[in-house]
Amino acid sequence: MKRSPLLLATLALSLLLAGCGARSVGNKIDDQFIPGRVASEIRASHADLNDTTSHIVVTSYNGVVLLAGQTPRADLKALAEQAARRAQGVKLVHNHLQVLQPSSPLARSTDAALTAQIKTAMLADNTVPSTKIKVVTENGMVYLLGLITRAEANRATAVVQGVGGVQGIVRLFEYVD
């Protein structure tokens, strides 16, 4: 079987870049699939945990899952968390769902723009390990996930505080020191 030089180069580069962070290649791959598994479990757990009655954002970093967004009732918030905990590969769930009606498309686009501003600010600051930090914005609240040192977390938080429009910051980091 003949291997493509481009395929081999891509694989080598992927492995090299994977060594740059504290997460294993397996963890990075798992984090690509966990949100889909969690979302499926959540949708299957109750009819009102769907895209029209609830807005649920699922993010995973190193097996740590963030649930953000809105659902109309407290019992649905609890059901979503229970469902997320059942999904394969989930180590920990941070349930930051708000008991509210789902946010509007305008609010979601504002959140997306805010996330882009934050990521740009982090990239511009060479003291922040932006490749190790996942940024999620929901209703102006910024959630930060990653596997970093406390000093790096403090620098990242300071950068986020300098971005206009941020309503609050929730640090969900795993610390390596």
UniProtKB/TrEMBL annotation:
Residues making up the signal peptide according to the UniProt record: 1-24
Listed PROSITE patterns: BON, PROKAR_LIPOPROTEIN
Pfam families according to UniProt: BON
Domain of life: Bacteria
Span of domain BON: 30-101, 110-177
Keyword annotations of the record: Signal
InterPro entries xref list: BON_dom, Lipoprotein_DolP, Transpt-assoc_nodulatn_dom_bac
Protein name stated in the entry: Osmotically-inducible protein OsmY, contains BON domain
Organism whose genome encodes this protein: Pseudomonas linyingensis
